[in-house]
Design goal:
Layout: H1 10-23, H2 27-35, H3 41-51, H4 62-75, E1 81-82, H5 89-94, H6 99-103, H7 113-122, H8 129-143, E2 146-147, H9 149-157, H10 163-171, H11 182-185
Parallel strand pairs: 1-2
Helix pairs in contact: 1-4, 2-3, 2-4, 4-8, 4-9, 7-8
């Protein structure tokens, strides 16, 4: 295997590495990384042997390690795919909305379940955001969604800077869209 180019950042190398694992169907390593999504310290420590080269061991920067663990674990999920032009996490989560919830997004009524989850996510601090993204990420996996994992890595790393962009993309800041299924967006 060729070493990564010297200019390649750890986040790009992480996504490239995980995409290769999925292509090669390395079930053992992918299962190890999925296990790191949970709260079990033992499972998280087991994943360190894979995540270490990408900054995934908690040391000086606990948030960076949490971001690496989140991105790696989500990309290891079986139906969650990577594509560079998938849009922000808010835009992808918008595709989870059912027809009724989509119609009531701009109404003063009680928000629907996905909108509540998004509000909860956006209210999260830097220390809480990765856990909340993992919860919605599991839901996106069920739907077979496609995410830009490089952008997700960057957004989580610099949280809360992308918060307003995710909110605008989720609530559709001035754009009218036709409801589409997340499944139709997934890569083959």
């Amino acid at each position: 295997m060729n070493p990564a180019p010297p200019t390649e950042t750890k986040d790009l190398a992480l996504v490239r590495f995980l995409s290769a694992l999925k292509r090669e169907d390395d079930r053992g390593t992918l299962a190890l990384l999925r296990g790191a999504l949970g709260d079990s310290a033992e499972r998280q420590i087991r994943a360190w042997r894979v995540l270490a080269r990408f900054g995934g061991i908690p040391s000086d920067d606990l948030h960076r390690a949490e971001v690496v663990r989140t991105v790696a674990g989500l990309l290891a999920l079986p139906r969650l795919n990577h594509a560079g032009a998938a849009g922000s996490f808010g835009k992808v989560c918008r595709r989870l909305l059912g027809d009724e919830e989509r119609k009531s997004l701009d109404k003063a009524a009680q928000p629907g379940p996905i909108s509540r989850r998004m509000q909860h996510l956006l209210a999260g601090t830097r220390g809480e955001v990765c856990d909340r993204v993992r919860q919605l990420g599991r839901r996106l996996d069920v739907e077979g969604a496609t995410l830009d994992f490089n952008r997700l890595h960057s957004d989580l790393l610099y949280w809360p800077r992308p918060k307003s962009r995710w909110a605008a993309d989720f609530w559709g800041a001035g754009e009218e869209e036709k409801p589409t299924s997340v499944m139709s967006e997934a890569a083959p």
